[in-house]
Amino acid sequence: MAAHQRLDMRQGQSLVMTPQLQQAIKLLQLSNIELAEFVAEEIERNPLLERSENAESGDYEGTEDKGAGREELALDGSNGMKEAHDAVDASSTDMYESGTGSDEAQSSNSMSGPSASTDWSQVGSGGSGSSEGFDFEGTLTSEKSLHQHLHDQLNMSGLSQADRLIGSRLIDETDDAGYCKVDLAETAKALGADEANVLAVLEVCQGFDPTGVMARDLTECLALQLKERDRLDPVMKCFLDNLHLAAKHDIKGLSETCGVDKEDVMDILVELRTLSPRPASGFSSEATIAVAPDVFIRELPNGMFAVELNSETLPRVLMDKAYYSEVSALPMRDQEKEFISECAANATWLIKSLDQRARTILKVSSEIVRQQDAFFAHGVAHLRPLNLKQVADAIEMHESTVSRVTSNKYMSTPRGLFELKYFFSASIPATGGGEAHSAEAVRHRIKQLIDDEGAKVLSDDKIVEILTEFGIEIARRTVAKYRESLNIPSSVQRRRILKASA
User: Fold this and answer.
1) Buried b (16+ CB within 10 A) or exposed e, 12-40
2) Alpha-carbon gap, residue 368 to 88, rounded angstroms
3) Where are the domains of the chain?
4) Among 194, 421, 466, 474, whose Cα sits 20 to 30 Å from the Cα of 76?
5) Is the entire prediction scored with pTM above 0.85?
6) Directed axis angle between helix 19-29 and helix 399-406, to 10°?
7) Cα-atom radius of gyration of the chain, to the nearest Å?
8) Alpha helices for 259-333 (secondary structure H)
9) pLDDT tens across 349-403, in order?
10) What's the CA gap between 35 and 198, in Å, rounded?
């Protein structure tokens, strides 16, 4: 059979990840802080976008000059929240389930749900005012950091310029806890200095305030503090060299190793507890970013639970249609027209993506509350086993969408602040074929048993027997794994602790 060439026309379907769909998926998995940074970058890049300074619902009366071409969709209690709750039971036809992100989806100005009458000009939140003002009061109340404190002492140490350079490098390598965990040989090689010289400078720096700072490990940190108290005798040095026995509360082992009786060992342990394992704990480190909840759960008088979005974490973005119309009417080159059209399309899609993100978070959170209602009513012991597929099937979405929604998202409940992923846990089978138990609930029950054990320490085997009586089928190795995850010592170590404190 002779080979020959020919042209064929075939028609087929395939899933295409458009840039707009990729952006929507990216927004879905961002935390509220990352989302705010992303929106700020888009506002800088797109001249048609701007952040709304109106923190209330979409009321633009008195601002006709700037807002003539603007509309807004605010997902707060005053505008759109009721419809957003109604949308929880809506179908799953949204951009996260779309395979192509076609032009029809980009050009459409209508969508099922609360946005059906909007022109996608704004997706809202409680917003925040301008943050560009200079916080003068904040500069007056700022605390000196550990590194600044150490550098000030280095400048007054009387060391030569070369040694101060070495000291500066060692200070920069010191972590927030006050430890300088450096390799002296590598540091000496990097600075072109002698290793003995680097060690001598480190010893000088270890005399800085606070006592114990810039130690290379816990043993050296405690030794520096004991040295200042003139308590670093041979017995204490031997004790510090065997801290692993102290961690296990092996009083007998410490007594034999250090050559002292048990009463002396107990006195040494009491003295060590007065020392600080984190010498730099009194200094401020980098600002800690507080976790802001994405969803609020409120208990209603009838015993039900209301699910509300935290509007403060949703950036309020405006598209200035009046400016767009004005610019579009001007004579422009083809490149300029293409740029303006692209900015308009990106602005529209960003607003639509933010709105869809908010609705999807609300949808998933509502289903989690429905599935875990016993937890909200009675506590951790009643947490049910739950996986992504159960939630995805209930709201008719893909598991990957639910996984993205629950990443880096937090829920504020009457029982505390929890990450959405907290409510998903493995299933522990029940004895007699009963309803399965959540792994988190079983872990909580193990912790309760150990906390209430008193003078009679429970072994892992005994805990297995007790849990079996509660209808929980669990292996001893699983109990040990959960106990270790809770940082609870073994029964042998707990007996030693109990005996030492008696």
Assistant:
1) eeeeeebebbebbbebbbbbbeebbebbe
2) 12
3) 19-129+311-358, 146-272, 425-501
4) 421
5) no
6) 50
7) 31
8) 262-272, 321-328
9) 888 888 889 999 999 999 999 999 999 988 888 889 999 999 999 999 999 989 9
10) 45
Query: Any idea how long the chain is?
Result: 502
Give the fold, CATH level 3, of 425-501.
Arc Repressor Mutant, subunit A (1.10.10)
| C-alpha dihedral (444, 449, 455, 457), degrees to nearest 10 | -90
pLDDT confidence band for 292 (50 / 70 / 90): confident
Chain position carrying tokens 């959960």: 482
Q: What is the pLDDT of residues 113-124, one digit of tens each?
A: 333 333 323 333
- Contact (Cβ atoms closer than 8 angstroms) between residue 120 and residue 110: no
Of the candidates 355, 362, 359, the residue with the CA atom closest to the CA atom of residue 307:
362
Range in 172-186, 200-214, 312-326 the model is least confident about? 312-326
Give the residue from 78, 71, 80 showing the smallest Cα distance to 122.
71
Residue 495 confidence (pLDDT): 87
- List, for residues 212-271, the tens digit of each pLDDT value: 999 999 999 999 999 999 999 999 999 999 998 888 888 888 999 999 998 898 899 899
Strands 73-74 and 122-124: parallel
Per-residue model confidence (pLDDT) at position 25:
81
Return d(Cα 74, Cα 465) in angstroms, integer: 55
The DSSP 8-state label assigned to residue 474 in this structure reads -
In 368-468, which ranges are E strands? Answer: 410-413, 416-419, 427-428, 437-438
- CA–CA separation, 178 vs 415, rounded Å? 35
Query: In whole angstroms, what is the distance from residue 388 CA to residue 33 CA?
Result: 24
Tokens of 168: 């500066």
Secondary structure (3-state) at 417: strand
DSSP state of 344: H
Burial 429-448 (b: 16+ CB within 10 A, else e): eeeeeeeebbbbbbbbbbee
More confident residue, 106 or 481: 481
| Phi, psi for 163 (deg, rounded to 5) | -70, -35
